[in-house]
Amino acid sequence: MSQSLLINGDITNPPSSISCVRDVAFIAHEFLDLNVIIECSAEKDFYYKFLKTFGVTDYIDDFLPFGRETGLRIDREYNFSPTVYVTEVINAFNLQLILRSIGFTGFRRY
C-alpha cells in the first residue's frame, strides 16, 4: 500500500503556479509512488474542474475532505503531522524545497 501525499486544495489556486503544482503531483505520483490527494471543502468539483483544465488530475488519486486521510501534507498550517509548510503558494522559488521535503532527491544522471 502506498503512502499518501495530501495537498491543501487552497494552495493549488492562483497565485500558485499551476505548472509547479503539476510538477509536485507528477513527481510524487510517478517517481515517489505516493497517492496524491487534494484536500478540499465540499466544493471538490471546483478543484477537479480547475485542475483538470491544466492536466494536473492525471496525477491526482482522489479529492477528499480535510482530515479524512493520513499521510504527509503540504499545507499553510501545522494542523496535522507531518506537514511540509508552505507560506502561501507553490511556485518556482519553493518548488525544490517542497520536492526535497517529500523525498525527491533528483533525477539520475547516466
What would you say this structure looks like, in words?
It is built from three helices and five strands; from the N terminus they run βαβαβββα. It is α/β, with parallel strands linked by helices and 110 residues long. It has one domain (4-101). A five-stranded parallel beta sheet has the order 3-2-1-4-5.
Sequence stretches where pLDDT stays below 50 over 5 or more residues:
none
Query: What fraction, in percent, of the residue positions are helical?
Result: 25-40%
Number of helices: 3
Biggest beta sheet attributes: 5 strands, parallel
- Structural class of the secondary structure composition? alpha/beta
Number of domains: 1
Distance between the termini: 30 Å
Q: Quick one: overall form?
A: globular
Q: Average pLDDT, to the nearest integer?
A: 91
Spatial extent as radius of gyration: 13 Å
List how many beta strands DSSP finds. Answer: 5
Strand percentage: 15-25%
Q: Give the neighbour order of strands across the main sheet.
A: 3-2-1-4-5
What is the N-to-C succession of helices and strands?
A: EHEHEEEH
Question: What is this structure's SSE topology?
Answer:
Elements: E1 4-8, H1 18-31, E2 35-39, H2 44-53, E3 62-64, E4 72-75, E5 83-85, H3 95-101
List key phrases describing it.
five-stranded parallel beta sheet, 3 helices, 28% helix, alpha/beta, 110 residues
